[in-house]
Amino acid sequence: MRKGEAKWAWEEDGTKVVRSIARTGPGCHQGCGVLLYVKNEKLTKVEGDPEFPHNQGRLCSRCLALTQIVYHPDRLKYPMKRAGQKGEGKWERIPWEEAYGMIAQKFIEIKKKQGPESVIFCQGTGRDIGPYISKLAYSFGSPNKVTFGPLDGHACFAPKVTVLAATTGAFEVTDCAQFFPERYENINWRVPQCIMIWGNNPLTSNPDGFMGYWITECMKRGSEIIVVDPRRTWLATRAKIWLQIRPGTDAALALGMLNIIINEKLCDEEFIRKWTYGFAELTRRVQDYPLEKVSEITWIPKEKIIEASRLYATSKPAAIQWGVSIDQSKECVPAIHAIMSLWAITGNFDVPGGNVIKSQNFNLDDEIKNEFQAISEEQKEKKIGRGIYPLLDQWYLPAVGSVVIDQILTDIPYPIKAAWIQTTNTFACSAADAKRVYEAFKKLDFIVVVDLFMTPTAMAFADIVLPAATYAERDGIALTGGNSIFVGTTNKAIEPVGESKSDMEIILELGKRLNPQVWPWNNVQDMFSAVIKSMEITFEELREKGFAYDTFEYKKYEKGLLRPDKQAGFNTPTGKIELYSTVFEKCGLDPLPYFEEPPESPVSTPEISKDYPLVLTTGAKSWGFFHSEHRQIPILRYMNPDPITEIYPETAEKLGIKDGDWIYIETQHGRCQQRAKLTAGIHPRVIHSQHGWWFPEKPGPEPSLFGVWESNINLLLPSGWVGRSGFGYPFKSQMCRVYKKEES
Ligand SMILES: Nc1nc2c(c(=O)[nH]1)N[C@H]1C(S)=C(S)[C@@H](COP(=O)(O)OP(=O)(O)OC[C@H]3O[C@@H](n4cnc5c(=O)[nH]c(N)nc54)[C@H](O)[C@@H]3O)O[C@H]1N2
Ligand SMILES: Nc1nc2c(c(=O)[nH]1)N[C@H]1C(S)=C(S)[C@@H](COP(=O)(O)OP(=O)(O)OC[C@H]3O[C@@H](n4cnc5c(=O)[nH]c(N)nc54)[C@H](O)[C@@H]3O)O[C@H]1N2
Ligand SMILES: [Mo]
User: Fold this and answer.
1) Is residue 362 scored above 50 in pLDDT?
2) Cβ distance 348 to 172 under 8 Å?
3) 587-629 pLDDT, tens per residue?
4) Nearest C-alpha to atom 17 of ligand 2 is from which residue?
5) How far apart (Å, rounded) are the C-alpha atoms in residues 725 and 118?
6) What confidence tier does 310 reach under pLDDT thresholds 50, 70, 90?
7) What's the pLDDT tens digit per position in 222-236?
8) Residue whose C-alpha is closest to residue 587's, from 396, 413, 405
C-alpha cells in the first residue's frame, strides 16, 4: 500500500531512519506517520512521514518535541518500590523480576482472600495499550477494568459510541476522505459543502484519528464552516457562521435546528421514509423547542440559528464534526441523539462527504475482546455499578467510573483492595472532585502505577512504579480505532531509556505470572501476530508491507452490509435509524431527545448564580499538552507556561483583573488559582479554565504532590452529577466566580 519503494528502516548519510506510526507514550490518540532519525543509537529528530496518507508529512508540536520527551532527565528509568510512607517520595530501585514477583504475589493473595474483583485496572484516555489492559484484568478474573481514569459519566467518546450503537447500530464519523490512502483524490469522495464544527476544536485536538489538517484541506476545497463554540477559536474566525453558545445547552440548539428543518420542510423525505423510525414522534417533540425559546436558552441570536439550520440542511453533502464537549454535559445522551437526528433527517448518512459509518472489518482485538466473555457470569455480575444503569449494563463493558469511587469509599457491596494504574493521572486530570478521588485511592492497600514520569498519581499512591517506554523505543500494532481506518506497525527506533519497557511487554510478562495459559507468547511480536491473525498476516509481514487500509463503501445500509442477517437496513431493533429509540425506552429512558438545564446554571440555580455569576467551561485542549502531560517538556511548557483562564476584557475590568493576574476561580465546591488571559474571544458571561495542571518543578512528596492542589480545576467540580443514563457529566458547565489572588 505504501507509495514507492520505501522501506521501514534505512541509512541516510550515517543516520538511521526508521519509519513508524506514532502512538503512546507520550499520550496521543492516533497514529501519524513519522520518520525517526537515529545517530549513534540516539534519537536526534522526528519528522512527519510525507508518504503517510493520514498526516501527509505534518506533525503536531508534541511529536516534534519527542527528543526532549525521550531524553528528559525526569523519565522513570527503573522499577521502584516504596521505601517510606505513602506519598513520602522515598523509593528503592528494584529489578524487574522482583517487581513482577511482588505484584503477582499481592494480586493473587487478594484474589484468594477477597476475590479477583477486588483488584481494579485503570486506564486513561484511549491508547493502544487499552485492549491489553482489558485482557490483563479479565484474564485475572476481575470484571473491573476502569477507563478514563475514572472519568465521571464516561464523559469522553463512550457516550457517543453507545448512543450511536443503540440508535444506528454503528459508529459514524465525519467523512474527510480518511478511509482512502489517496485521500482527497479518491473519485467517490465528495468535499462536504458545509461542515458544522460542534463543541470540537480539531486543529488543536485532532481527536480520535483526525489529524486537524483535514478541516483546512476541506475548506481549501470549498467547505463552508459553521462553528458552535462559546470560544472564538481559529476556525470560528474563518466560519461562515459562529454560534457562540452558552455552555451545556447543545441539546437545545440541536432540537431548535431540528424544529426549523422539519417545519420548513428542508428534510430528505425519501431517506426519512425508507430508513428512519419515529419521525412523527420526533416532529411532535421538536415543537417543544420553538426558535424564541431556543435562542433564550442558548444565548444565540434567532437569526443565526435560522441561518445555520438552513445552511446545514440545504448544503449537500453536509457533515457535523462534534467533540467531547457534547459528551461533557450531564444529559449528553439526548444531546447526542438530537445531533445524530440532524444527519438522519437531512439524508447526510453514510453518503460521500456526510457522516459516514466507519467500516469494521479490521477486528484486530478479538484475541483480547473475547476475554470479558470468558469470565464467569458470576464474576460479570460483580462488575462495579452493575444493575444501576440499564443502558450501561447492556452496552458498555468497563466498570462504572463514578461508582468505583463510591465503592472504594464505602466498601459496598464489596471492598476494593488494589489498583493497577496504567496511563492515567486520575485526580490530577481525569476525575471530577479531585480530593474525593484522591482520598478513595489513598484507602487502597496496594497500587501499581505504570508511567513515563513521576506524576502526582504515582507519588501519592504507588507502592510500585514501573517505567514505560515511549513509542520510539518499542514495537506495536498501530490500529486507528477511532475514525480513519488503517493498520500498520509502530517500529522501535532506539533502545529504551534506562530499564524502561513497553507497556505491552510489561503486561505480557506480568500476565504470564497471573494466568500463563492466556499469555502464551514468548515475545510481544508473537502476541501482535496473534492479535492481527484475522488479517492473515504476521507482525513482521505487516511491518514490511507498511500499512493496510480497510475496505470502505458508502451507503452500506442499502447493500446489506450492516446487519448480521445481511438484509438492507441498520443493525437496530427496528432495522432503521431510531429517531425514537426503542433501546432507550427499554432502559427506562426517554426514547426521544430532550434538553435539560445543567445542574448548576443561571436558569436552574438562579440563587447560586447570584454569588457565582459566571459560567465556567473547562479543559479545552491546548496545542502543546496532552491532558496533564508534557508540563516538564521545555519547548511545550514554553508555549503555555502557566495555567490559563480566559476572561472577556470588560468582565475582567469590572472585577479589577488585568491580563496576566493570578486569580482564584471558585465554585460552591472548591477553588484553584490560574492566570487570567483577557480575550474578546469568549462570551462575556463565560470563562474557560484549563485542566490537568500540576507542576513537575515543584516538590513531589506530600503535601505538595507537585503543586497538584494549586491549579487543578477539578477541585471545583463535585461528584454525583452523572446523567440519568450513567453517561455524561457537566465538565463544560458550572457556575463560578473569579477574583484577584491578593484579595482572597
Ligand atoms: N475539567 C476537565 N477535566 C477533564 C477534561 C475536561 O475537558 N475538563 N477532559 C477529560 C478527558 S476528555 C479525558 S480523556 C481525561 C484524560 O485523563 P487521563 O487519561 O488520566 O489524562 P492524561 O494526563 O493523559 O494521563 C495520562 C498519564 O499516563 C501517562 N502516559 C501517557 N502515555 C503513556 C503510555 O503510553 N504508557 C504509560 N504507561 N503511561 C502513559 C502520562 O504520563 C500521564 O501521567 O481527562 C478528563 N479531564
Ligand atoms: N493537543 C491535545 N489534543 C488532544 C487532547 C489533549 O489533551 N491535547 N486530548 C484528546 C482527548 S482525550 C479528547 S477527548 C479530544 C477532545 O478534543 P475536542 O473534542 O476538540 O474537545 P475540547 O478541546 O475539550 O473542546 C472543544 C471546544 O469545545 C468548546 N466548548 C466548551 N464548552 C462547550 C459547550 O458547552 N458547548 C460547545 N458546543 N462547545 C463547548 C471549547 O471552547 C473548545 O473550543 O482531544 C484529544 N486530543
Ligand atoms: Mo477525552
Assistant:
1) yes
2) no
3) 999 999 999 999 999 999 999 999 999 999 999 999 999 999 9
4) 205
5) 25
6) very high
7) 999 999 999 999 999
8) 396
From CA 206, how far away is CA 204, in angstroms rounded?
Answer: 6
Other C-beta atoms lying within 10 Å of the C-beta of residue 3? 12
Name which residue sits closest to atom 29 of ligand 1, judged by CA: 423
Which residues are CB-neighbours of 333 under 8 A, at least 6 positions away? Answer: 159, 162, 163, 391, 584, 589, 723, 725, 727, 728
Instruction: Give domain 172-357's CATH number out of 3.30.200.20, 1.10.10.10, 3.40.228.10, 2.115.10.20.
Output: 3.40.228.10
Q: What is the pLDDT of residue 364?
A: 56
For the residues of 283-326, what is the DSSP string, one character each? HHHHTTS-HHHHHHHH---HHHHHHHHHHHHHSSSEEEEE-HHH
Given a cut of 80, is residue 434 above it in pLDDT?
Answer: yes
Question: Could you tell me the three cell numbers for 209?
Answer: 484519528
Distance from C-alpha of 392 to C-alpha of 400, rounded to nearest angstrom: 8
**What CATH architecture applies to the domain 606-740?**
Beta Barrel (2.40)
Check pocket membership of 125 for ligand 1, CB cut-off 6 A. Answer: yes
Average pLDDT over residues 134-161: 92
- Positive or negative torsion for Cα 255, 257, 260, 265: negative
User: For residue 205, which ligand has an atom nearest its CA?
Assistant: 2
The structural domains of the chain, with segments of one domain joined by +, span: 80-154+362-549, 172-357, 606-740
**471 Cα–ligand 3 center, Å:** 20
pLDDT over 90 (residue 361): no
Closest ligand by atom to 621 CA: 2
Mean pLDDT for the chain overall: 94
pTM above 0.85, yes or no: yes
Burial of 14-33, coded b for 16+ CB within 10 Å and e otherwise, reads eebbbbbbbbbbbbbbbbbb
Residue with CA nearest ligand 1 atom 7: 619
Q: Which CATH code, of 3.40.50.450, 3.40.50.740, 3.40.366.10, 2.102.10.10, is assigned to 80-154+362-549?
A: 3.40.50.740
Read off the pLDDT of residues 364-398 as tens digits, 9 standing for 90 and up.
Answer: 555 566 677 788 889 999 999 999 999 999 888 89
